[in-house]
Specification:
By secondary structure, this protein is of the alpha/beta class. It has 2 domains: 196 residues, 2-enoyl-CoA Hydratase, Chain A, domain 1; 47 residues, Lyase 2-enoyl-coa Hydratase, Chain  A, domain 2 (Orthogonal Bundle), CATH 1.10.12. It contains 11 helices and 10 strands. Helix 1 runs parallel beside helix 3 and helix 5 crosses helix 6. The protein is globular, with a radius of gyration of 19 Å. The chain starts with 5 loop residues before the first strand and ends in a 10-residue tail after the last helix. It binds ligand T3D. Ligand T3D binds next to helix 2, helix 3 and strand 6.
Amino acid sequence: MSYETILTSDDDNVRTVTLNRPNELNAIDQRVTQELQKELKAISQEPSVRCVILTGAGRAFCVGQDLKEATAGDEPLDFAARLNEGYNPVICALRSLAVPTLACVNGVAAGAGWSLALACDLRIAAKTAKFVSAFGKIGLVPDSGMTWTLPKLVGYAKALEISWFGDAISAEQALEWGLVNRLAAPEGLAMETQAWARKLAQGPTRGYALTKQAINASLSRDLESQLEYEAMLQGIAGRTSDYEAGVKAFIEKRQPEFTGE
Ligand code: T3D
């Protein structure tokens, strides 16, 4: 599929989606959310894609809403509709995709751009990247899921501090607070991300999907219902051919070859 604002490429069952408005620091306009929605739907229907990388072209990951677009018209903006129709389906699609999603934060991530990175399952960032909530500085509420993801990663008080003050957070600080999983030298970032993604793409994809489902569900369940849910999901995982392949390889003392089924 070809798009105006994003690029896609495939390598070893890994789909890379690149936000491609480098002159605007990959700011999000209406086309970006529409194209991301379309692409994530396409990915969900392509069994050959077993891991997704989301990254940005040029010096930024993404600076959030294109404020020039947002202020271009004469009519007052319908923020709720813009979120419900544009951003929120992207966040839900990323979060529910049945394959691991990896944000490769190559530069600044601000506003809803940071929310996009937070909606991915894992994050790897360049040591030079920075993270800016930005919403507080323009009188907005952190959106596109940030009020949900951020406190889960850093806790209540830190989430409010980040949201209210909006100061830039360095990559080192983000690593220390658990906002990113790994850092890489800027020149090695793409290669390290690809290597990590390839490893995920060679894993038991169905089991990974069920694990993601379980961990997402745990965020709103008590222990008893989570135990039941785990048991139900394990019933599914235990019938996959990857489970069979994994156990056989263990007994034969060799590496398994997972098909993702
Ligand atoms: O509207 C709705 O539907 C609601 C949804 C809202 C979601 C949101 O994301 S709201 C938050 C929007 N984002 C921001 O407020 C971030 C604004 N940008 C910044 O704070 C800074 O630019 C950064 C910290 C991200 C980067 O700083 P720095 O020093 O690296 O770059 P810079 O010099 O500030 O920016 C470079 C250029 O990019 C500059 O343009 P120019 O002067 O060279 O022509 C700047 O205006 C432009 N730019 C940066 N961010 C945006 C942007 N242009 C449009 N929209 C932006 N978000």
